[in-house]
Amino acid sequence: MKRWLITPGNAANDQSSAFGKAYSDVAEIAQTQGYQLLTITPFQVDETSDAVLISRIDGLTAGVSADDFLVYQYPTFLGARFDYTFVDHLRARGARVILFIHDVFALFLSADGKGYHDMDFFNHADLLITHGSQMTRWLRDHDVTTPMVDKPLFDYLLPEKNNIAHEIPQRRLVITGNLLKSQDLTHWESNTPLDAYGRTSIVGVDGVEQHMSLSPQITYHGALLQDELLSQLPKNAFGLVWDSDVPVAPFSNVNFYGFYKHYNKYNNPHKASLYLAMGLPLVVWQEAAIAKLVLDYNLGFTIQAPSEIDARLSALTDEKLSHYSKQAQFFSALLRAGYFTRQALLDAEKSILFKLLERRE
Q: What 3-state class would DSSP assign to 252?
C-alpha cells in the first residue's frame, strides 16, 4: 500500500500567493509522511476527448495500485469534468481517494450554496478533509454523506531564517492577503494603527487595471512576494482576519465578487495561519469558524465590528498581551512543524482502514 498526493502544477509553481503556499505546504508535509507527489500539468480539459483524458490520467497515475491512498488537493482549477473523471476513474481502479479541501466554491460564490458542483463531487470520494466542524456540519446539512475528518487550521511552513515574534504585542494591527476581499478597508475608521500588505488592484475584462482606495487611517505597504512579506511583517502587532461580503462587483468591467465574510463562518483563513506562524495573536470576527479556537486557546480576541477594536485593545492589560503572545508562539511551533496536516492525513487513513476492518466481520 502506497500513499500519493495530487497537486495542480499552477499551485506547485506559485510561491507568491496564499494559493500556492497552501498547496505546496500540504505537498511538503505529506511527503514527510511517505506520500509521493504527482503534479498535474495544466491543460485545456474541454478540448480533450474522453479517451485522451483517461489516457492522461492513467499516465500520471501509472504507479497507483488498488488499495493505495491518493490525496487529491481540491480545487485543481481544471474544472468539474476533470474532477469527476479523475476521482471516479481512480476509485474504479481500487484506489482510496481522499479530497483535501482548500476551498468550497459553493460557500463563497453563492448565497445559498447552489450552482456549483462541489457538494455532488464530494460524494464521489472515499473521505474528505475539511476546514473543521463548522464546514463539516454545513456539508452534512447540504447532503454530503462522505465520511469527513476535521482539520482546524492550515499549517504554515517557514524557513529557519524567519524569526517569530517574541515581543509583547503593541496595540496595533496588521492585515495581509488579497485586500480586495476586505472592502471595509475603504472606509476604515479605527484609530488603532493598521499596516496593510496585499493586492488592491485588479484588471478588468477591458484590460484596464482598477484600484481599491484604502482609508487614510491605514498604512499601505504594497503587495509583496512571500519572502519579502515575511521579513517586513511587524513582529509586535495583532493579525487582523476581516473579510467583507462583496455580492456586487465593486469595480466596473471586473468580475470580482464573493460572500467572503459569510465564508469565514465555515473556513479557516490562510492568513490566520500566517499570523500565528509568525507568533502574532489574532483579532477575528466573533461569528467566524476560527473564533472558538481563538477564544479557547487565548490566541487573541473576537469582535463583531471594527468599531470595537480601539476599546478592546485599550482595555487589555500588559499581562494579557503577554499571555496572548505566549499562546501564539506555542501555536507557531505547531504550524511550522505541519502538525495539523500530519494529524489530518493520519486520521483520514485510520478512518478508511478501520471501516474496511469493520466490513470484514
A: coil
Distances (CA, A) of 139 to 41, 121, 125, 136: 30, 12, 14, 5
Give the integer Cα–Cα distance in Å for 19 and 131: 15
First to last CA, the chain: 22
**Phi, psi for residue 181 in degrees, rounded to 5:** -80, -10
Numbered ranges of CATH 3.40.50.2000 in the chain: 3-154+338-359, 173-336
How distant, in Å, are the alpha carbons of 185, 232, 258 from that of 248? 17, 33, 8
Interior CA angle at 302 toward 331 and 249, to 5°?
Answer: 105
Strand stretches in 53-200, DSSP E: 69-74, 96-101, 127-130, 148-150, 173-178, 194-199
Strand partners, 73: 100
What is the pTM assigned to this prediction? 0.94
Beta partners for residue 110, in sequence order: none
Task: Please provide the CATH number assigned to the domain covering 3-154+338-359.
Answer: 3.40.50.2000
Q: Nearest 10 degrees: CA dihedral of 169, 197, 287, 192? A: 50
Phi, psi of 27 (to 5 degrees): -60, -45
Going from the C-alpha of 83 to that of each of 19, 79, 88, 255, 266, the distances in angstroms are: 18, 6, 8, 24, 23
Per CATH, domain 173-336 is 3.40.50.720: no
Q: What's the Cα-to-Cα distance from 348 to each of 2, 31, 120, 144, rounded to whole Å?
A: 14, 16, 20, 17
Segments of the chain scoring below 50 in pLDDT? none
Decide: helix, strand or coil at residue 259.
strand
How many other C-beta atoms can be found within 10 angstroms of the C-beta atom of residue 125? 25
| Element at 257 (helix H, strand E) | none
Burial of 111 (0-12, 13-18, 19+ CB in 10 A): exposed
Quickly list DSSP for 300-332.
EEEESSGGGHHHHHHT--HHHHHHHHHHHHHHH
